[in-house]
Amino acid sequence: MSEVNQLILLAEYNQLMNKRQYAAAANLSKVQIGEDKGAFFKSVLGTLNHILVGDIIWLKRFAEQPSSIESLSYIREMEKPGKLNSVLFTDMDSLQETREKIDEAIINWIGGLGADDLDECITYTNMAGDSFSQPFVNLIHHVFLHQVHHRGQVTTLLSQYGVDFGETDLIEIINECGT
After folding, report:
1. Which of the 8 DSSP states describes residue 173?
2. C-alpha count within 13 angstroms, C-beta hemisphere, residue 111
3. In degrees rounded to 5, what are phi and psi of residue 131?
4. Residue 58's closest CA among 178, 149, 50?
5. Contacts for 159-164 with beta carbons within 8 Å, 24 or more apart?
6. Does 3-173 carry CATH code 1.20.120.450?
7. Model pLDDT for residues 102-144, shown as the tens digit of each residue
8. Which among 17, 22, 25, 28 is positioned nearest to 167, based on CA atoms?
9. What does the pLDDT look like over 42-62, one tens digit per residue?
10. d(CA 50, CA 87)
11. In this predicted model, what pLDDT tens digit does every residue of 76-109 receive, in sequence order?
């Protein structure tokens, strides 16, 4: 399987898990969604916002790369969050709508990348103003792993309310050989 196909698999998994997580969160009341449970980003709402913030920040960096300017035009138009704990949306409907658009943008963007694009190093400035030059493919993996980490936190918060998130394993969407 090519590296691009691996990333497409991760993007599809990412989209599926986000859909499931938002569906599970829909079982909570508005008060429960925003309740400070002592998590790093306090609540389900705060953590879901943080995942979105992280994606926007990274995708805006990626959108500056020649291979991504056009495919990430939706992201380029978005305002860059000022802080990692920014709350972009206080209502789940708006948050979910944006999450779905970004997940679709990620899938379309990844599908348009070539192996040569992934071999590039990109230079970016982090939130503290420090500059880095790192392999593009590794940074894309970072975005997916960042989401996995924080979705795990949301899953724990959901379980505290008695909401079972269900299956989270990538193996669920990996095709059998020969299919």
Report:
1. G
2. 8
3. -100, 140
4. 50
5. 160/37, 161/27, 161/28, 161/32, 163/24, 163/25, 163/27, 163/28, 164/24
6. yes
7. 999 999 999 999 999 999 999 999 999 999 999 999 999 999 9
8. 17
9. 999 999 999 999 999 999 999
10. 7
11. 999 999 999 999 999 999 999 999 999 999 999 9
Nearest to 49 by CA among 60, 39, 64: 39
Both tokens of 13, joined, read 């998994």
Neighbours of 143 (CB within 10 A): 20
Residue whose token pair is 């493919």: 137
Under a CB-based contact definition with an 8 Å cutoff, are residues 132 and 139 in contact? Answer: no
CA distances 110 to 55, 104, 134, 141, 179, Å, are: 14, 10, 18, 11, 22
> What are the residue ranges spanned by the domains of the chain?
3-173
DSSP 8-state assignment for residue 86:
-
For residue 133, give both structure tokens. Answer: 């030059």
The 10 Å Cβ neighbour count of residue 103 is 20
Separation of alpha carbons 99 and 15, rounded Å: 9
Kindly calculate the radius of gyration of the chain based on its CA atoms and give it in whole angstroms: 17
- For 81, the token pair is 């969050």
Amino acid residing at 81 = P
The one-letter amino acid code at 101 reads K
Exposure of 129 in the CB half-sphere (CA atoms within 13 A):
0
Residue for token pair 């779905």: 100
Measured CA to CA, the distance from residue 59 to residue 122 in angstroms comes to 12
